[in-house]
Write a structure and sequence with these properties.
The complex is a heterodimer of chains A (273) and B (512).
Chain A: E1 4-7, E2 14-21, E3 25-30, E4 36-40, E5 50-53, E6 62-65, H1 67-72, E7 76-77, H2 91-103, H3 123-141, H4 143-150, H5 160-178, H6 186-197, H7 202-212, H8 218-228, H9 232-243, H10 249-261, H11 268-271
Parallel strand pairs in A: 1-7, 4-5
Antiparallel strand pairs in A: 1-5, 2-3, 2-6, 3-4
Chain B: E1 4-10, H1 17-29, E2 33-40, H2 43-51, E3 67-73, H3 76-95, H4 108-114, E4 120-123, H5 127-139, E5 143-146, H6 153-165, E6 170-171, E7 177-180, E8 183-186, E9 193-200, H7 203-215, E10 220-225, H8 238-249, E11 255-260, H9 265-277, E12 281-286, H10 291-295, E13 300-301, H11 305-317, E14 339-344, H12 347-359, E15 365-367, E16 375-376, E17 386-390, H13 394-397, H14 408-419, E18 423-431, H15 440-443, H16 445-454, E19 459-465, H17 474-483, H18 492-506
Parallel strand pairs in B: 4-5, 5-6, 9-10, 9-11, 11-12, 12-13, 14-17, 14-18, 15-16, 15-17, 18-19
Antiparallel strand pairs in B: 1-3, 2-3, 7-8
Classes of the chains: A alpha/beta (273), B alpha/beta (512).
């Protein structure tokens, strides 16, 4: 019997089957639609579609999540929506984030080093080059071509390219909330980015859709709080927590987020759409 | 530069990025490997594979969610070997649910480079490669625990001589149990730390004494395994003697317990001479040896493993033993029930049981183990009269896991023996701890429940070798066994004496 500690606030009722299994996360896929949920340990923490459990030693391969269960159980609910946030990002914090990213440039290929024009010698070099080219393409040349270059690019179940695109989607939410911009085309832009980012990787797709809706994990929420209201020390600590997600996933997302919030919105390549 | 590319496609398998990055990094560090990639087969990843010369046409048919693995090396053999090793690691990771905390190494040298303070390598590869790997490890200054079997006597001798020349130990081959500085290696139990040091040429023998010592309040400094052949004439006790020297010199070790079948007379003499020189008490449990053979070297004689543990405890804790005798249960049998069937996963338990039965004048003992007190069975799958079977012997383990891990074969045999109308008593062992089956409650106990349900008048005795610290939950297992009217002796020797007494009481196995 799973002991549930926290329920995601956007969980979708329905029948689920096992998708993929890791030490601290077990992903399930809804058999009626493309939605997913994740059983996670408290080390991973809450999220819109997470169920935080005491232990993952035993879990079912199939489960049926009912509305009634979600309504009746007085288990702690996650709080995942960015809409409820009052976000202000100072230039000082932005500089702080930039410093943190550069201090951690070995954790993400998307952080550009000084040695920009090197001759790629192996797979890793080619991958790094392509990620940087894709990032530049998105902001400087052609949004959709850049997304095409990045989607599904990288190692693991949520490749760096997809994580970066997730960061961009979250960054647009943050940027528009923090600058109180009334941008009627924002949802259209988000939709355009999402539709062009989706591939055949169900899990990546689901994370992209989650970011599209402006929903974030507890860890990302802590980071955004620190970026908005915390001290520089809070920001550093929240960054370090986020940086421990996956091999580079956490930092890749922050690079995407940083690239959006440091710019004027909408940036030139967005205006073409 | 000429190069070779070897590839693999894995369908429907997901790995976390940390695992994939770490494994890729380790492969690329290997000598003569030029490049490697493990990525999902998305269109963008394929482009990068092509740009870096790692793409092959076989990848064309793989769907986007498949994992594409490609290794480029300077020669075919090394590239192939790297791919095989990588696949083995991914299979292993999958079994352990993508535990990204684990470190992966493709060679002992690679591991040593990163774990600079490591000084023991546990080698558990197929026997034909084991000596080569052990030699590589010795060359970089590592002591060896050689879990592998099927290493030739000549290879063992050569490894041990070389190790001795470098003041290193080769524990094995076929060494099942070691506990070094509290760290269990192979089949071992969660034991208490203490001042009793053990040299053991028998794996389950070492488990028996270390768990008994722990269960009765003592503790272990080190338990050094040697492999069963070490004390024979050919090897000459090279490791046994080195291990004994180490324990004599070890400040933490105050009492030394030796566990083995009787060493060759020349080896025994060397052990005895060493024991004579130390002020530490040395207890020798050389199963089957005569008391006089041991005592002439000032060592303390122990007839059984239990006695060895008790004597070590008495010295270590400075107190008398409190063990009482096991009561013989009330026996209600029909006139046909006359014989004992002992089915063991621990070879030393089967060996010791036969010695004890023989010593208690029980006749008609048959076994698949060669022991002076019994007759070798023609067919180890067919019991005769009083039969003692070591199910860990080669004839039962070829192509299948050891019976401490996989109970299937023994469960079948238990039920078969229980149904034999001539059987009065079943004697079994259950060995807990690291390396053993993790779930005996669900995989072993139901067989005994079935036996109990279908065959009423049968004495079932089962030892449980382990401590309360073992993950299998010894207390619950013992409680379940007792609830099924299974007798749980404190040790194998206690169980064997009980069997002998039962056979005598039935009056059919007794030497009249």
């Amino acid at each position: 019997m799973l002991k549930i500690l926290e329920l995601g606030d956007y969980l979708i009722p329905g029948p689920y089957k096992l998708h993929s299994e890791f030490t601290r996360v077990v992903n399930f896929q809804n058999t009626l639609n493309d939605s997913m949920l994740s059983l996670v340990t408290s080390e991973v923490g809450g999220g819109p579609y997470n169920i935080v459990v005491e232990s993952l030693n035993h879990f079912p391969e199939e489960m049926h999540l009912t509305k009634q269960y979600l309504i009746e159980n007085s288990i702690k609910l996650s709080s995942s929506s960015l809409k409820s946030f009052d976000i202000q990002i100072s230039q000082e914090k932005l500089k702080g984030l930039k410093t943190l990213l550069f201090e951690n440039k070995d954790k993400s290929y998307l952080i550009e080093s000084d040695n920009k024009d090197f001759e790629p010698a192996n797979f890793e070099d080619h991958l790094k080059n392509r990620l940087i080219e894709g990032k530049r393409e998105i902001f400087d040349k052609d949004l959709l071509e850049g997304i095409k270059m990045l989607k599904g690019l990288g190692v693991g179940l949520t490749p760096s390219g997809d994580d970066f695109l997730i960061g961009i989607l979250l960054g647009i939410h943050l940027k528009t909330i923090s600058t109180r911009q009334t941008d009627l085309s924002r949802d259209k832009i988000l939709k355009l980015i999402l539709e062009n980012s989706l591939g055949k990787n169900e899990l990546s797709n689901w994370f992209l859709k989650t970011a599209f809706r402006g929903l974030v994990s507890s860890k990302m929420k802590i980071f955004i709080s620190a970026l908005s209201q915390g001290s520089m020390q809070d920001l550093r600590e929240a960054f370090e927590i986020q940086a421990r997600i996956g091999h580079s996933s956490g930092v890749d997302q922050l690079v995407g987020l940083y690239e959006v919030i440091k710019r004027e919105y909408p940036w030139p390549t967005l205006l073409k759409h | 530069m000429a190069h070779f590319i070897k590839t693999l496609i894995k369908s429907g398998e997901y790995f976390d990025s940390i695992t994939l990055m770490v494994v890729t990094k380790k492969i690329k560090e290997l000598k003569n490997i030029l490049d490697a990639a493990i990525v999902m087969g998305t269109l963008e990843n394929r482009k990068i594979l092509k740009a870096s010369g790692l793409y092959v046409d076989e990848f064309n048919i793989a769907p986007e969610n498949d994992l594409l693995i490609s290794i480029k090396g300077e020669n075919q053999k090394i590239t192939e070997e790297a791919l095989i090793k990588l696949d083995e690691i991914l299979v292993d990771v999958k079994k352990r649910k993508n535990s990204s905390k684990d470190e992966f190494y493709f060679s002992i040298a690679q591991a040593k480079k990163e774990l600079k303070e490591a000084n023991i390598a546990l080698i558990s590869v197929s026997g034909k490669y084991a000596a080569l790997e052990a030699m590589k490890a010795l060359n970089i200054g590592m002591n060896i625990m050689l879990f592998s079997d099927n290493v030739s006597l000549a290879e063992e001798l050569s490894l041990k001589k070389y190790a001795a020349s470098k003041d290193l130990l080769v524990m094995g081959p076929d060494c099942g149990t070691c506990i070094i500085g509290g760290v269990p290696l192979g089949f071992a139990n969660k034991v208490s730390s203490g001042d009793i040091g053990i040299v053991g040429a028998s794996g389950t023998g070492t488990q028996e004494v270390t768990t008994l010592i722990t269960n009765f309040g003592g503790g272990i400094s080190h338990a050094i395994g040697t492999g069963g052949r070490d004390v024979g004439q050919d090897i000459g006790g090279i490791t046994f003697l080195s291990a004994l020297k180490l324990l004599i010199e070890d400040e933490k070790t105050k009492t030394i317990l030796l566990v083995s079948k009787p060493p060759h007379v020349d080896v025994l003499a060397k052990i005895g001479e060493l024991a004579k020189k130390t002020t530490k008490k040395v207890i020798a449990c050389f199963l089957g040896a005569q008391k006089s053979q041991v005592e002439k070297y000032n060592m303390i004689y122990a007839k059984t493993l239990e006695e060895g543990a008790i004597k070590a405890l008495e010295i270590s804790l400075n107190r008398d033993s409190i063990f009482g005798a096991l009561e013989i249960p009330a026996i209600k049998m029909n006139s046909k029930q006359r014989f004992l069937r002992g089915l063991f996963s621990g070879g030393t338990f089967a060996f010791e049981t036969q010695l004890i039965l023989g010593g208690e004048s029980i006749k008609d003992i048959y076994s698949n183990l060669k022991v002076v007190t019994s007759t070798l069975l023609d067919d180890p799958h067919q019991s005769m009269k009083n039969t003692i079977i070591d199910l860990g012997a080669d004839e039962f383990t070829q192509g299948r896991p050891h019976p401490m891990i996989d109970y299937t074969l023994r469960n079948e045999r238990i039920f078969k023996e229980a149904k034999d109308p001539e059987v009065a008593c079943l004697y079994l062992d259950l060995v807990l701890g690291f390396g053993s089956n993790k779930n005996p409650i669900n995989e072993f106990l139901p067989t005994l429940q079935k036996v109990r349900k279908e065959i009423k008048d049968l004495i079932v005795i089962c030892t449980v070798t382990g401590t309360d610290g073992d993950s299998q939950n010894k207390k619950e297992i013992v409680a379940n066994l007792k609830a099924m009217d299974v007798i749980v002796p404190r040790s194998n020797a206690a169980g064997a004496f009980l069997c002998a007494n039962i056979l005598k009481q039935i009056g059919r196995g007794e030497n009249e």
